[in-house]
């Protein structure tokens, strides 16, 4: 395409010795395309009207028409044509006279960005010919009637994805005639998990419906002993979300020519979804202070976050791991890359690919918070994206870990992945990207180390099973939990597990050998710790049980420390100290209860109602130390949602959200949010206060847009109580 730049524009462009044209990473910018491109001097008698001229182009772009139906893009709330690559779609062209294939020469042109080039995939000329070959661009006439032709167009399964501009060009003896720029014919091309030649091809229809087309999901949180779940609205088909996702790639400065490659897209997206570099989408905050922003627990889905970022271009405040993962999932599904949200329970953190987490104890066996720097997150959420890995040896395609929560830098930026799940399982962590880090998140060992006065470290206890105890995702086609721990690791203690570990260590995962330290485990006494399950705001009891397997009598000086913690395992404050002496009879078990009063914890409780208990016991007769730690999560009351009246598409109805305050205090600054993809955009309402034991009722009128099974999701946030959710599945009937 010939392109003449005006001189003042040339002055603005910095000269660059490496490239003739500037970097091309905006899908939005355009170039001028001439309507008449002359081959030389045009004779005076030339009149373009004498030649074949395009009068109209029809894109079959309505949701019920053939293209969006066959390409599974009918749910996108977007008036333009959206198709998936590597699969045929149809358009109709109306001319000023009948088209004569033997005499008329026409072709289509798809362009992207400001500097379209054929070798970069941003300028795609498609001659109208006779046959379509799978795997490459082509167009053929499938129907002629009067002045119209219908074309079947095949796109390449490796073409770049994004928004293309379409022109129809007609050859005349004196030059090329083109249609005028018309944004109504813009065409979005996305990844195609239904096409065998696409790098994201997924062969199971039920999985495609879940991992590409489902616009709601479930986030698992809580802890291993007490798995909790809540809904999240991905909303990948909602209005403007597709444009917002394309904008993220512009923001990450991913060259247009690289946008056909899901590996590159995942890698740049895992950096741009957090704000740590270049002002990405979400600002993380883990300190329980969310002034001038929205508390992470208040969000009910991704749409508000993406649209706010798309309009303000400023990081949205605030997020924690499930928010980063929820938004990343929306981005991937929106572009057509199969994706799912993963929760890893007891996730090792700050691990710089080191398999050892140290908890230091002082002389009395209490945890020394000054020396202990490592933390174990109750849970951590990341994503998996499905794709082939032609950059790795055979066998490492399939699910890839990508993580947008800023934890460690990778090649100088806060990002993580894509790392092959298969490579992590087998310990082949030499393969890019960031596999050692993920391996350590699911495979670390917890060392309880006592510092003696002379500086020697004595290892009192090693817990090899705690980290990565349970890895889950939402089941396909339902809201239940699917345990995928075995995708990441072999069974604890199996030969395969040992081999995978040796392989990982060979490839640079750091594992300290026990020989560096003295370690003599206590074998003849076991200690266990259990907590009663209760609703937030009540007293509860915890039980410490000793099992003395020896024939000796022992006394154990026992110390219990109860801490209020962030879900990341970081302590905010110790709220309970309790020590006692336990008499342990030979060959028997003894239990000791400790009562925790609500008055002891309510004032400082953090939003996920997480406690962390450390129990250490010194056997006086032998000097050995037992240590156990456990996370406890209280039950948080839920919101009740019900509908009033019949549920018919296009007809107004109302939904009622109710909440009863269970605490022994008034809730201040109460904020409710309600949303449902395909039902209603997020609605927020501020309530001043809810006194203890009283019930709040909120009625919202709305008109459901589409028939089918939909989900309403609500959240409540207040100063003293957060992480309160409710949800309701509703069946909307056809009118």
TrEMBL record:
<feature type="binding site">
    <location>
        <position position="497"/>
    </location>
    <ligand>
        <name>Ca(2+)</name>
    </ligand>
</feature>
<feature type="active site">
    <location>
        <position position="321"/>
    </location>
</feature>
<feature type="binding site">
    <location>
        <position position="445"/>
    </location>
    <ligand>
        <name>Ca(2+)</name>
    </ligand>
</feature>
<dbReference type="InterPro" id="IPR001102">
    <property type="entry name" value="Transglutaminase_N"/>
</dbReference>
<dbReference type="InterPro" id="IPR014756">
    <property type="entry name" value="Ig_E-set"/>
</dbReference>
<dbReference type="InterPro" id="IPR036238">
    <property type="entry name" value="Transglutaminase_C_sf"/>
</dbReference>
<dbReference type="InterPro" id="IPR008958">
    <property type="entry name" value="Transglutaminase_C"/>
</dbReference>
<feature type="active site">
    <location>
        <position position="380"/>
    </location>
</feature>
<dbReference type="GO" id="GO:0046872">
    <property type="term" value="F:metal ion binding"/>
</dbReference>
<comment type="function">
    <text>Factor XIII is activated by thrombin and calcium ion to a transglutaminase that catalyzes the formation of gamma-glutamyl-epsilon-lysine cross-links between fibrin chains, thus stabilizing the fibrin clot. Also cross-link alpha-2-plasmin inhibitor, or fibronectin, to the alpha chains of fibrin.</text>
</comment>
<dbReference type="GO" id="GO:0003810">
    <property type="term" value="F:protein-glutamine gamma-glutamyltransferase activity"/>
</dbReference>
<feature type="binding site">
    <location>
        <position position="443"/>
    </location>
    <ligand>
        <name>Ca(2+)</name>
    </ligand>
</feature>
<keyword id="KW-0963">Cytoplasm</keyword>
<comment type="similarity">
    <text>Belongs to the transglutaminase superfamily. Transglutaminase family.</text>
</comment>
<feature type="binding site">
    <location>
        <position position="492"/>
    </location>
    <ligand>
        <name>Ca(2+)</name>
    </ligand>
</feature>
<comment type="subunit">
    <text>Tetramer of two A chains (F13A1) and two B (F13B) chains.</text>
</comment>
<dbReference type="InterPro" id="IPR002931">
    <property type="entry name" value="Transglutaminase-like"/>
</dbReference>
<dbReference type="GO" id="GO:0005737">
    <property type="term" value="C:cytoplasm"/>
</dbReference>
<dbReference type="InterPro" id="IPR023608">
    <property type="entry name" value="Transglutaminase_animal"/>
</dbReference>
<keyword id="KW-0007">Acetylation</keyword>
<dbReference type="GO" id="GO:0005576">
    <property type="term" value="C:extracellular region"/>
</dbReference>
<keyword id="KW-0479">Metal-binding</keyword>
<keyword id="KW-0356">Hemostasis</keyword>
<dbReference type="InterPro" id="IPR050779">
    <property type="entry name" value="Transglutaminase"/>
</dbReference>
<feature type="region of interest" description="Disordered">
    <location>
        <begin position="1"/>
        <end position="26"/>
    </location>
</feature>
<keyword id="KW-0964">Secreted</keyword>
<keyword id="KW-0865">Zymogen</keyword>
<keyword id="KW-0094">Blood coagulation</keyword>
<dbReference type="Pfam" id="PF00927">
    <property type="entry name" value="Transglut_C"/>
</dbReference>
<protein>
    <recommendedName>
        <fullName>Coagulation factor XIII A chain</fullName>
        <ecNumber>2.3.2.13</ecNumber>
    </recommendedName>
</protein>
<dbReference type="InterPro" id="IPR013808">
    <property type="entry name" value="Transglutaminase_AS"/>
</dbReference>
<dbReference type="InterPro" id="IPR013783">
    <property type="entry name" value="Ig-like_fold"/>
</dbReference>
<keyword id="KW-0106">Calcium</keyword>
<keyword id="KW-0012">Acyltransferase</keyword>
<feature type="active site">
    <location>
        <position position="403"/>
    </location>
</feature>
<keyword id="KW-0808">Transferase</keyword>
<feature type="domain" description="Transglutaminase-like">
    <location>
        <begin position="313"/>
        <end position="406"/>
    </location>
</feature>
<dbReference type="Pfam" id="PF01841">
    <property type="entry name" value="Transglut_core"/>
</dbReference>
<dbReference type="GO" id="GO:0072378">
    <property type="term" value="P:blood coagulation, fibrin clot formation"/>
</dbReference>
<dbReference type="Pfam" id="PF00868">
    <property type="entry name" value="Transglut_N"/>
</dbReference>
<dbReference type="InterPro" id="IPR036985">
    <property type="entry name" value="Transglutaminase-like_sf"/>
</dbReference>
<dbReference type="InterPro" id="IPR038765">
    <property type="entry name" value="Papain-like_cys_pep_sf"/>
</dbReference>
């Amino acid at each position: 395409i010939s392109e003449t730049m005006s001189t003042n524009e040339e002055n603005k462009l910095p000269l660059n010795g490496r490239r003739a044209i500037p970097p091309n990473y905006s899908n939005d910018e355009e170039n001028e395309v001439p309507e008449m491109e002359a081959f030389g001097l045009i004779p005076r008698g030339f009149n373009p009207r004498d030649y074949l001229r395009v009068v109209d182009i029809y894109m079959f772009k309505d949701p019920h028409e053939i293209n969006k139906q066959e390409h599974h893009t009918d749910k996108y709330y977007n008036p333009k044509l959206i198709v998936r690559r590597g699969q045929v779609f149809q358009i109709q062209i109306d001319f000023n006279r009948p088209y004569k294939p033997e005499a008329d020469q026409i072709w289509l042109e798809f362009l992207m960005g400001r500097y379209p080039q054929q070798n970069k995939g941003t300028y795609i000329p498609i001659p109208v010919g006779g046959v379509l070959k799978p795997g490459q661009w082509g167009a053929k006439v499938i129907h002629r009637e009067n002045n119209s032709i219908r074309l079947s167009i095949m796109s390449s399964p490796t073409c770049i994805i994004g928004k293309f501009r379409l022109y129809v060009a007609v050859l005349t003896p004196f030059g090329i005639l083109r249609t005028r720029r018309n944004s109504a014919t813009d065409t979005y091309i996305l990844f195609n998990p239904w096409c065998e030649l696409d790098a994201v091809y997924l062969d199971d229809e039920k999985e495609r419906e879940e991992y590409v087309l489902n616009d709601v999901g479930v986030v698992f949180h809580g802890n291993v002993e007490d798995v909790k779940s809540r809904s999240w609205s991905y909303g990948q088909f909602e209005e403007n979300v597709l444009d917002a996702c394309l904008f993220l790639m512009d923001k990450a400065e991913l060259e247009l020519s690289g946008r056909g490659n899901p590996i590159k897209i995942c890698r740049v997206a895992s950096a741009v979804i957090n704000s740590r570099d270049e002002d990405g989408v979400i600002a993380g905050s883990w300190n329980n202070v969310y002034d001038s922003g929205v508390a992470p627990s208040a969000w009910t889905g991704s749409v508000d976050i993406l649209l706010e970022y798309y309009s303000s271009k400023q990081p949205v405040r605030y997020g924690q791991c499930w928010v980063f993962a929820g938004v990343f999932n929306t981005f991937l599904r929106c572009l057509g890359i199969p994706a799912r949200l993963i929760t890893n329970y007891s996730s090792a953190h700050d691990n710089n690919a080191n398999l050892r987490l140290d908890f230091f104890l002082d002389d009395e066996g209490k945890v020394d918070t000054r020396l202990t720097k490592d933390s174990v997150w109750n849970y951590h959420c990341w994503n998996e994206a499905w794709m082939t890995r032609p950059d790795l040896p055979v066998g490492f395609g399939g699910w890839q870990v990508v993580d947008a929560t800023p934890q460690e830098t990778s090649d100088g930026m806060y990002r993580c992945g894509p790392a092959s799940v298969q490579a992590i399982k087998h310990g082949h962590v030499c393969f890019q990207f960031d596999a050692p880090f993920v391996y350590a998140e699911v495979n670390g060992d917890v060392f309880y180390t006592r510092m003696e006065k002379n500086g020697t470290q004595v290892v009192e206890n090693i817990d090899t099973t705690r980290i990565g105890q349970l890895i889950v995702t939402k089941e396909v086609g339902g809201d239940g939990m699917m345990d995928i721990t075995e995708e990441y690791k072999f069974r604890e203690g199996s030969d395969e597990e040992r081999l995978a570990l040796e392989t990982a260590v060979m490839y640079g995962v750091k594992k300290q050998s026990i020989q560096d330290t003295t370690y003599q485990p206590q074998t003849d006494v076991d200690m266990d710790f259990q907590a009663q399950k209760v609703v937030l705001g009540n007293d509860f009891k915890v039980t410490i049980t000793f099992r003395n397997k020896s024939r000796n009598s022992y006394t154990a000086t026992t110390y219990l420390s109860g801490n209020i913690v962030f879900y990341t395992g970081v302590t905010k404050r110790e709220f309970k100290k309790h020590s006692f002496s336990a008499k342990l009879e030979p060959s028997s078990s003894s239990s000791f209860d400790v009562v925790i009063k609500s008055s002891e914890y309510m004032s400082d409780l953090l939003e996920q109602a997480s406690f962390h208990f450390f129990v250490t016991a010194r056997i006086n007769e032998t000097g050995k130390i037992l240590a156990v730690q456990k996370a406890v999560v209280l039950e948080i009351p839920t919101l009740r949602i019900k509908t009033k009246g019949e549920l018919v598409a296009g007809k107004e109805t109302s939904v009622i959200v109710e909440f009863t305050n269970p605490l022994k205090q008034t809730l201040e600054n109460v904020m409710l949010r309600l949303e449902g993809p395909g039902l209603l955009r997020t609605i927020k309402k501020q309530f001043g206060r809810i006194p203890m034991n009283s019930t709040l009722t909120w009625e919202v009128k709305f008109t459901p847009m589409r028939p089918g099974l939909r989900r309403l999701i609500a959240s409540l946030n207040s100063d003293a109580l957060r992480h309160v959710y409710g949800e309701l599945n509703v069946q909307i009937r056809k009118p």
